[in-house]
């Protein structure tokens, strides 16, 4: 549908006539039922419930080719799943580049009645962060699949709750050394910023989620400290910062206290991190009662850390620990998988690969093909669990043996799995990107981050005392990140870079565990590919 | 894939890396087998074999929601069908606006070895005509479904064999009173015109098909007469004209003789008819041996008839008669259906409707739902076979009782059916468009065209002596067109305006006949909607 997310008219994938989709709010322990009817003309669609474990309902995970078939135009699929843990989540498309096309919304799970959060707040806000291109998601897909490769470029605009400003700035003229004009809003425009109205001397909870297709972000509130208390639906030991990084796929709750001069307003800013920022800072206003919301802050907007000040980012990540009293990880692992991320050229196409295999999703959902033992739905050879020991992660590498693949890492049910994500140099010299990796169906402990190539000796540095539980963790340029999780959720689960064009270019793997324990997968999740054919061949007619 | 159909880079739906798709050539009596693998990212796809009757293979007709489910990304569907009659045909997408997106190609059926055409020619050419928008087909779909309505506008460029020139003209400066510059080509550009190289004093067969999404066209070759010999795969009594109209969905063979000065070249021109032309004339060159192909014609390009000179168009249509000795139509009919075409506003959406019903295609293909007696797949009430006798086709009408519908006209097998297509005033005053109606699965006799509202008395004017056989026939503004066909092809068949946005806006109906005689529909044509669910419920697992 037509919409103007950043004051420039464009087409978005809307839900029930809204963009972003409606916020879904439930209590922990609730069962959520969503009837998704696909009203697109020719495109299939799915929705992934990001951060929800889907324990017992792996078919409701909403990952096309993995947990279900895409829903055809005109058809309805019912997602029915339990939300077992309070926290800040979101939902989004997980097919092609439909997330970039605007298919997303917030999902907030509150504590059951009678239970209390381990921190106090007087009110709360929710900010769903995203990035927006003026080029359609379909054209972006063609770009990424072209030979020679065409990069989609940086987003035109950053959005907060689906609202951004492309041709103007809230702080123009007054503070920003740019030619852009000051924004003028009546207030009811779809791109008018959502102002946060607060009372003095209160504490607010700000829920922040990032469903960006590409951008890593830095959030700050001028003159206010941010106290981080939740990450990806897990409590963290509270710590205070002036600004915070948030990568695609992550969610946080932060507390801030309105202890500043109430006769002024303050900037809330969002800036690009980790890529040379060609996208302007996004702004909105923290409005103190009884000051008018239209009064601009008297100070300039917060200055973001330099885009490539990775030490700043690492310092933030290293501050995140599990809240005291949280469950500790198993002290040993059963299975360790090393995953090297490289940018590769395969037959002249630019791809991302894991241990030199670039993921191409099959036409048949793995959940069905594994459950029903279909032999030809994907490559049953085990994908590589390591990379050559002489591989130099600091240098450009031609990786001449790169291939496409769709194999599955088969995990023993209830085993403890360590994954070491290893970053490396990309195709160009002296380039190594940030990649936030997201695991479906689980939470993992982040045992640590390190520089260069991971070695067995690095294990001594693992934090087994208070590692944070997350569902998304970043690998820094030329570094490694170590994760541990228990493979206790029967199903098939994507584990992938949450940068949507990177996943589209093959940057992901597939884990499966205990699929024999999955109770009957609803047939209507499996109407495509070889599972579809299997039903057809039941010769009822 | 990226392509530059009109010298402006854009994305087209290609086939095997080509645009237009490869020309398929076969002999009458051959069975054609096409394996269509859908390599689009998130869109389904089908291909309709326009003009092929699909006798005995109604599931291979390639009309989404009617003969089959759209083929999912990553999946392959095999179209296997017999081409029983020599002639000039084409193929194209029949889902959403994918035809407008470039999904088309030529299909030429030659006489079997040993058989001879009833006319002589020394060589032949093929011109597949289309129109091209710079806006993607997905955005066009959103436009047409928007409230308030957004018309897609006129095409930017007319294409011959997928080649056109947007920013320049072959005849610029020299002849055309415009600011556009002269085209300069090396010759290997995808938008370089395809030049027709001929020898003097020969006769050539020019096959012409129009797969335009919108434009009605007029074709002329400067200084040369066109002798029409074939229409939609049927021989016609040869007649000679200076220029000819061709509507979307039509195909012709014309003969021309190279009897002009061989030291010159001549223009071949294509112009818009029936809509105020905002799209420049398309040109290519008829190049006489041994003159250089780069030598421009010395005369200006042919001047097209005025866009609204409907008398010129009617005169052409009325010249088309069946070749002497062709089979005559039955002299009486069993069933007459009057179909009034109106433009309607339904809940603020702009639609086209037939007898006040705007077609919305169902999620389940009719061929499956009728074959298997599924009750809830579509509305089983018969759609209206006439319109109120006091309806004034010359005036704007609010049509307050317009509805959406998906009912089927059930035809008795082997009955003779008359269809009278009745045109009317559109929503705006003094507007009545041209609509070329195309029938799947059949040829029909065009019994006549008339002005104003059809009455029983008009029947006396029907041509039962030598009406031409066609699969596409136009209704002129404020007029009617009478067709007769025998419902002898078991299956379900679309009958619709071949202007793609008009069909998308509801301008079509569905005929069904003898579905009980259809042998087993391949299950893989029916994996969606309620037929899909039917297979799932066979509880094999």
TrEMBL record, chains A, B:
Any Pfam family hit: Cu-oxidase_2
Location in or out of the cell: Secreted
Cofactor(s) this protein requires: Cu cation
Enzyme class: oxidoreductase
Main subcellular location of this protein, as a coarse class: secreted
Keywords: Copper, Disulfide bond, Glycoprotein, Metal-binding, Oxidoreductase, Repeat, Secreted
GO cellular component, one term: extracellular region
Domain (Plastocyanin-like): residue spans on this chain: 3-111, 125-288, 399-514
Presence of keyword Magnesium: no
TM stretches of this protein: none
Keyword Repeat: yes
InterPro entries in alphabetical order: Cu-oxidase-like_N (IPR011707), Cu-oxidase_2nd (IPR001117), Cu-oxidase_C (IPR011706), Cu-oxidase_fam (IPR045087), Cu_oxidase_CS (IPR033138), Cu_oxidase_Cu_BS (IPR002355), Cupredoxin (IPR008972), CuRO_3_AAO (IPR034267)
SUPFAM superfamilies: Cupredoxins
GO biological process: negative regulation of defense response to virus; response to hydrogen peroxide; response to virus
The enzyme's E.C. designation: 1.10.3.3
Record's catalysed reaction(s): 4 L-ascorbate + O2 = 4 monodehydro-L-ascorbate radical + 2 H2O
UniProt family annotation: Belongs to the multicopper oxidase family.
Quaternary structure annotation from Swiss-Prot or TrEMBL: Dimer.
Protein name stated in the entry: L-ascorbate oxidase
Species whose genome carries this gene: Coffea canephora
């Amino acid at each position: 549908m037509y919409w103007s997310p950043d004051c420039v008219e464009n087409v978005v994938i809307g839900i029930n006539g809204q963009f972003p989709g409606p916020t879904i709010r439930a209590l922990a322990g609730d069962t959520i039922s969503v009837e998704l009817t696909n009203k697109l003309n020719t495109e299939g669609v799915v929705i992934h419930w990001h951060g929800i474990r889907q324990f017992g309902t792996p078919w409701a995970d909403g990952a096309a080719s993995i947990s279900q078939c895409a829903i055809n135009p005109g058809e309805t699929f019912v997602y029915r799943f339990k939300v077992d843990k309070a926290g800040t989540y979101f939902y989004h498309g997980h097919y092609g580049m439909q997330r970039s096309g605007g298919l997303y919304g917030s999902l907030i799970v509150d504590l059951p009645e009678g239970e209390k959060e381990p921190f106090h707040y007087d009110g709360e806000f929710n900010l769903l962060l995203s990035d927006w291109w003026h080029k359609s998601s379909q054209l972006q897909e063609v770009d990424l699949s072209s030979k020679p490769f065409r990069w989609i470029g940086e987003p035109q605009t950053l959005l907060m709750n689906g609202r951004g400003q492309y041709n103007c700035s809230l702080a123009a003229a007054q503070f920003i050394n740019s030619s852009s004009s000051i924004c003028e809003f009546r207030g009811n425009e779809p791109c008018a910023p959502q102002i946060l109205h607060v009372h003095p001397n209160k504490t607010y909870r700000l829920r922040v989620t990032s469903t960006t297709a590409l951008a890593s972000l830095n959030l700050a509130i001028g003159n206010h400290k941010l106290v981080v208390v939740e990450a990806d639906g897990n409590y963290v030991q509270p710590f205070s910062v002036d600004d915070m990084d948030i990568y695609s796929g992550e969610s946080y709750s932060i507390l801030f206290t309105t202890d500043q001069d109430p006769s002024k307003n303050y900037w809330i800013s969002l800036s690009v991190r980790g890529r040379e920022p060609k996208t302007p800072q996004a702004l909105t206003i923290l409005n103190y009662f009884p000051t008018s919301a239209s009064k601009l802050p008297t100070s300039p907007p917060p200055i973001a850390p330099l885009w490539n000040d990775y030490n700043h980012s690492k310092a933030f990540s290293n501050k995140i620990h599990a809240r005291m009293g949280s469950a500790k990880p198993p002290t040993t692992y059963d299975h360790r998988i090393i995953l090297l991320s490289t940018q590769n050229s395969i037959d002249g196409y630019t791809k991302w690969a894991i241990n030199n295999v670039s993921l191409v999703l099959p036409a048949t959902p793995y959940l069905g093909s594994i459950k029903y033992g279909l032999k030809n739905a994907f490559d049953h050879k085990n994908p590589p669990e390591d990379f050559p020991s002489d591989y130099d992660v600091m240098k450009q590498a031609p990786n001449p043996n790169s291939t496409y693949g769709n194999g599955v890492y088969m995990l023993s049910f209830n085993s403890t799995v360590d994954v070491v994500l290893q970053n490396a140099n990309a195709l160009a010299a002296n380039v190594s990107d940030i990649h936030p990796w997201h695991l479906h169906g689980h939470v993992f402990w982040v045992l640590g981050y390190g520089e260069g190539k991971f070695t067995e000796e690095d294990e001594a540095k693992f934090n087994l005392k208070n590692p944070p539980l997350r569902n998304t963790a970043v690998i820094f340029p030329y570094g490694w990140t170590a994760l541990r999780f228990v493979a206790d959720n029967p199903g098939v689960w994507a584990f992938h870079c949450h940068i949507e064009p990177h996943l589209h270019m093959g940057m992901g793997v597939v884990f499966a565990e205990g699929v024999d324990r999955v109770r009957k997968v609803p047939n209507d999740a499996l109407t495509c590919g070889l599972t579809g054919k299997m039903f057809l061949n039941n010769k009822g007619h």
